[in-house]
Write a structure and sequence with these properties.
This protein has helices at about 5-20, 25-35, 40-45, 50-90, 110-125, 140, 175-185, 225-240, 290-295, 315-320, 335-340, and strands spanning about 130, 135, 165-170, 190-195, 210-220, 245-250, 255-265, 280-290, 305-315. It is an alpha+beta fold.
Length: about 350
């Protein structure tokens, strides 16, 4: 093994690297000069037969040569990549004088506009926002709300079950049970915005997913007059000072007494038209006084505390506010629909 052989290998490698014009050729040279079966590597493996002094000198020389060849190949690769990029850029020039594509702007979904506005109205009344899981247990979704197993009210809330006792919540009322148990008999004034799920047909007025804002107030000496005053203020803030409300008897398992809440029709100011079917009123939400069983099951003495609850359908309010004709439009993310509600500067 002589230095002359190593120098010849180095000169040959540098000559071939310099003449290379493609990345493929450089890969071939890597294999030829740096792979395990290359001449350099065979010389390295033969070092063991040399005397110690000569072995050290030749090993150092071989390693230096190998490093120089590897560096030369790397620099040549960078040079070729740069040349290829310049060639590509030259062939793909962009005419910056051409007009750009128009960027379509959407708008804030009216669902969220209404949700935020309702939330702000109740926050200004002194309510706080509470949250809870969308995947609930049968206990919190039904039983703690006075809807025991085999109760006929469950038929109206057929939902999506994950197991026999775990399901997608059918209303935001389970948040009330969670909050009552967490507050341990203390006064409550909360709203609970969120998604709910029921097995339903998808058409212009129904969806398997919709949203509610539930309200709950519990304290001493709360009566239905407080409920009426709260909802009347909400209606005027949401739909205008001219709107009036009326309460109609109804039934909900978790309230007693229960009421449906209507507002005067904005289209005819309560005179009667096709929109309100001649009644002068349009239903917007349901509510009532918290059932004593619900209070008792969640840690409140019904002889000391009373309260009211209500549930507002966010999509229903948005439909009334904006005259939207199909509930599915809230979820389709159609930019033509959204840009109608773009805020004006």
């Amino acid at each position: 093994m002589e230095n002359q052989n190593i120098n010849e290998i180095y000169s040959s490698a540098m000559d071939e690297i310099g003449k290379s014009s493609t990345s493929e050729k450089l890969q071939e040279l890597k294999i030829k000069f740096l792979a395990k079966k290359s001449v350099l590597m065979s010389l390295l493996s033969a070092l063991g037969s040399l005397p110690p002094e000569e072995r050290k000198e030749m090993g150092q020389k071989l390693n230096e040569t190998k490093a120089k060849i590897a560096k030369a190949i790397e620099e040549k690769e960078a040079e070729l990549r740069k040349a290829e990029l310049e060639k590509k850029l030259e062939s793909e020039q962009i005419d910056i004088s051409l007009p750009s594509k128009r960027v379509e702007l959407g708008g804030q979904n009216p669902f969220y506009v209404v949700k935020d506005e309702i939330t702000d109205i109740f926050l200004n009344m002194g309510f706080e926002v509470a949250d809870g899981p969308e995947v609930e247990t049968d206990l919190y979704n039904f039983e703690l709300l006075n809807i025991p197993k085999d109760h006929p009210a469950r038929d109206m809330q057929d939902t999506f079950y994950i197991s026999d006792s775990v399901l997608l919540r059918t209303h935001t009322s389970p948040v009330q049970a969670h909050t009552m148990q967490a507050r341990e008999g203390k006064p409550i004034r909360i709203i609970c915005p969120g998604k709910t799920y029921r097995r339903d047909d998808d058409d212009a007025t129904h969806s398997h997913q919709f949203a509610q804002i539930e309200g709950l107030v519990i304290d001493k000496d709360i009566n239905i007059g407080h409920l009426k005053a709260t909802l009347e203020l909400f209606a005027k803030k949401m739909f205008g000072e001219k709107r009036e409300i009326r309460l109609r008897p109804s039934y909900f398992p978790f309230t007693e007494p229960s009421v449906e809440v209507d507002i005067t029709c904005a289209n005819c100011d309560g005179k009667g038209c096709s929109m309100c079917k001649g009644t002068g009123y349009i239903e917007i939400l349901g509510g009532g006084m918290v059932h004593p069983n619900v209070l008792k099951m969640n840690g409140y003495d019904p002889d000391v505390y009373s309260g009211f609850a209500f549930g507002i359908g966010i999509e229903r309010v948005a439909i009334l506010r904006y005259g939207i004709d199909d509930i599915r439009k809230f979820y389709q993310n159609d930019i033509r629909f959204l840009r109608q509600y773009r805020k004006k500067a």
